[in-house]
Each structure stands twice: as structure tokens, then as C-alpha cells.
């Protein structure tokens, strides 16, 4: 394995930064790439996001490879030498590893490596909050990049180490969240008839929302509704509450299912609030569009993995997590794939998780082969 990429991964691991505050991480990456040859940086892609551009002489396609800059507000439970030096922030999604992989491509992107086209390494901020990729595609500077192809990977704990996992349709779920506030009238607990207590409405909403669920992942109309936070009133025994909140995260395999699910949720909420004489406000948050893979781009991933002798697995349905790569996927022929992180690797976002260093070379190998096939 390339020692410099390994060292970079561990350095990034030691100095993690949360979403929206990845300035020092971005600077570390720029320094690393500058040391490895001629590169042009493009900023103003929203927040700390930036691109490293490698131009080759002849006209040809622009191939973008994307990774994420951010860590998570999780306390690291590991005690190895390169553990996080920041008290309550750590790389628990493996974005340190993804960055090391993308940086590992720099050595093969020197002048004269290819006769045509362009490679853009995109270092995207704020993936975990779902904001970064959207800012990138909506920034005016993105027009200068205009990728023809975009690729990304995510490491997948639980899958065999080095296995390449592809999905024919969407790689990851369409995810939205909602916050509902219900407002009635607070009253003395002895005189509830003088108030409007939202408790019964909340209690009715839970099964009504659960009935919208279609939990079989093989079902294209899959819909998962997870309650994440509920509150009514306070620990004060003399008061009948007048305020309640209901927060959910909602996942589907397609945008169409999400649209109809949102309409159903809106209608159930409206009806329930009306029946109980409550005012309500329903706010939709944190949109991660589904990551729809392009057929040709996905085929390139498969062929590259086969050419490099890697084990391949096609998943029958998307991963249920959200990935803001979906914003980029709508702008070019794109594919996202999984890279197995080992059966015994702790889960993503788990306090003991750590990106397996062995995967750096594998990721570099697959991306290099994809680039070679498009620009070679
Ligand atoms: Zn994550
Ligand atoms: Zn991640």
C-alpha cells in the first residue's frame, strides 16, 4: 500500500472536523495534492467544498470522483495512537478513508498520464447534514466543472473486506425528515375541559403513520417511517399541556413513493389536528434524494472491479441510509458503489468504528481503472 495515503488517512483521523467546519481538513488535502504535482484548485463550491482539477491536452469527457470531508459529533472509543484529538468529534463514517483513496489517485494524474479529457477530484463538505452536495451543484462555480461522469464509493461494514457492491437502480434511499408541532391550549390539570391537550392527537398519529409503512425491502414501493423524537407537555403535574412535537425520518426507494408518502403524511396530520382542534405546523427537513445509478456508469464500476480481480456482489435493493451524492447523481452519468469493510468491522457511526486501511489500495485501484477506461 502507498504509505503516504495511509499516513494521510491517519492524520485526517487525528484531526476530524464536523460538517460545515472542515477548513483545516480541506487545507491538509490541498497541501498533500500540491506536493504531488501540478493541480488546479477550484473553490466557491459552497462551504469548504473544493475541487482538484487535472486537465489533459485533448478534448474528452470530464470524470469526477467525489469524497466527503466531514466527521461526526461522536466521541471516539478507540485508543490507538492515531485516535481523534478532538474531544467529541471523530471520523466514524470512514470519510477519512474515502479522502485518502481519492488523494491516492493524484500520483496517476500527472501531466501526460492521459491524452484527453479531465479528472476532477471533488472534496465535498457537509455530507452528514445533507447540505454539502446540494450546495456544490447549486453553486455557480459548478458550471465550470460540468462533469460527464461522477463516481463515489462508501465503505460498508458487515460486507466482506474488499468486496465491491453495486445496485442496479438507486444505491441509497430517498430520505426526508419531518418536524410536526401541535398547538392547543394549556390549562389547569384539574380543568382539562378548559384547554386543548394534544396528547390524544399524538397517540392517534403514531399508528396512523405506522400504517403507511411498507417494510419489505424487495417492494419497489418500500416506505420506512421511523419516529425519532416525541414530546408533549412537561414533568409538571398541575398542567394539562397545550403543545406537542412529533419528529420522524422517512425513507423510500423512489422519489415517486416519497412524493405520495409526503402527501399522505400531510393529509393525516391535517385531519388529526382538525379533529382535535389543534393548530399544526409540518416542516420537512434534511432531504437526501435517492442516489440513482446510471446504467452505463454502473457497468463501468462492474467492469473495473472485474478487471482488478475483485469480488462483486449486486444488491437487490438500495441501502436504507441517506447519501447526499443523490444531488450530484442528477447532474451527470453517475454511479455510487459499496466497498466491503469486513464482517467484523463495527457499524458506521458506532464509537469504535475505524476505516480499514487495507481498503485504500482497493478504492484507488477501482477508481483508477474507471478513469483509465474513460480517458485512456
Ligand atoms: Zn455517515
Ligand atoms: Zn458516510
Describe it for me?
The protein has 376 residues and is an alpha/beta fold. It folds into 2 domains: 255 residues, Zn peptidases (Aminopeptidase, 3-Layer(aba) Sandwich); 115 residues, 2-Layer Sandwich (Alpha-Beta Plaits). 30% of the residues lie in helices and 26% in strands. It contains 10 helices and 14 strands. The strands form 3 sheets. It has an 8-stranded mixed β-sheet with strand order 1-2-4-3-5-14-6-13, sandwiched between helices. Strands 9-11-7-12 form a 4-stranded antiparallel β-sheet. Strand 1 and strand 2 form a beta hairpin. It binds zinc ion (2 copies). The site of one zinc ion has 4 residues, from loops.
Topology at a glance:
Blueprint: H1 3-14, H2 23-34, E1 40-42, E2 50-55, E3 58-68, H3 95-104, E4 116-124, H4 132-138, H5 142-145, E5 149-156, E6 164-167, E7 174-183, E8 187-188, H6 199-210, E9 223-232, E10 239-240, E11 243-252, H7 255-275, E12 279-288, H8 295-307, E13 312-315, H9 325-329, E14 333-340, H10 359-375
Parallel strand pairs: 3-4, 3-5, 5-14, 6-13
Antiparallel strand pairs: 1-2, 2-4, 6-14, 7-11, 7-12, 8-10, 9-11
Helix pairs in contact: 1-3, 3-10, 6-7, 8-10
Amino acid at each position: 500500500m502507498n504509505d503516504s495515503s495511509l499516513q494521510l488517512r491517519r492524520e485526517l483521523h487525528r484531526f476530524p472536523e464536523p460538517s460545515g467546519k472542515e477548513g483545516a481538513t480541506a487545507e491538509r488535502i490541498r497541501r498533500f495534492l500540491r506536493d504531488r504535482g501540478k493541480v488546479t484548485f477550484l473553490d466557491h463550491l459552497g462551504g469548504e467544498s473544493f475541487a482538484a482539477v487535472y486537465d489533459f491536452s485533448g478534448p474528452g469527457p470530464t470524470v469526477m470522483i467525489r469524497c466527503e470531508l466531514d466527521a461526526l459529533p461522536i466521541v471516539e472509543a478507540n485508543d490507538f495512537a492515531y485516535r481523534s484529538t478532538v474531544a467529541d468529534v471523530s471520523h466514524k463514517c470512514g470519510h477519512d478513508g474515502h479522502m485518502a483513496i481519492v488523494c491516492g489517485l493524484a500520483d496517476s494524474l500527472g501531466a501526460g498520464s492521459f491524452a484527453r479529457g479531465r479528472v476532477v477530484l471533488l472534496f465535498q463538505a457537509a455530507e452528514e447534514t445533507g447540505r454539502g452536495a446540494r450546495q456544490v451543484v447549486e453553486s455557480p462555480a459548478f458550471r465550470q466543472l460540468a462533469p460527464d461522469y461522477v463516481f463515489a464509493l462508501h465503505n460498508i461494514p458487515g460486507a466482506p473486506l474488499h468486496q465491491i457492491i453495486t445496485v442496479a437502480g438507486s444505491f441509497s434511499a430517498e430520505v426526508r425528515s419531518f418536524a410536526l408541532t401541535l398547538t392547543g391550549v394549556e390549562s389547569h390539570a384539574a380543568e382539562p375541559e378548559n384547554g386543548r391537550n394534544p396528547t390524544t392527537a399524538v397517540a392517534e398519529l403514531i399508528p396512523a403513520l405506522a400504517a403507511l409503512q411498507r417494510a419489505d425491502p424487495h417492494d419497489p414501493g418500500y416506505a420506512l417511517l421511523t419516529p425519532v423524537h416525541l414530546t408533549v407537555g412537561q414533568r409538571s403535574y398541575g398542567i394539562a399541556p397545550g403543545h406537542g412535537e412529533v419528529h420522524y425520518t422517512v425513507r423510500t426507494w423512489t422519489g415517486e413513493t416519497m412524493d405520495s408518502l409526503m402527501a399522505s403524511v400531510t393529509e393525516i396530520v391535517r385531519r388529526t389536528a382538525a379533529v382535535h382542534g389543534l393548530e399544526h405546523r409540518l416542516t420537512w427537513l434534511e432531504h437526501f434524494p435517492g442516489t440513482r445509478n446510471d446504467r452505463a456508469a454502473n457497468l463501468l464500476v462492474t467492469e473495473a472491479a472485474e478487471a482488478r480481480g475483485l469480488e462483486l456482489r449486486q444488491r437487490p435493493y438500495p441501502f436504507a441510509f441517506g447519501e447526499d451524492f443523490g444531488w450530484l447523481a442528477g447532474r451527470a452519468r453517475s454511479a455510487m458503489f459499496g466497498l466491503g469493510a469486513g464482517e467484523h468491522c463495527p457499524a458506521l457511526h458506532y464509537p469504535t468504528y475505524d476505516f480499514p486501511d487495507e481498503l485504500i489500495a482497493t478504492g484507488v485501484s477501482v477508481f483508477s481503472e474507471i478513469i483509465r477506461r474513460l480517458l485512456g
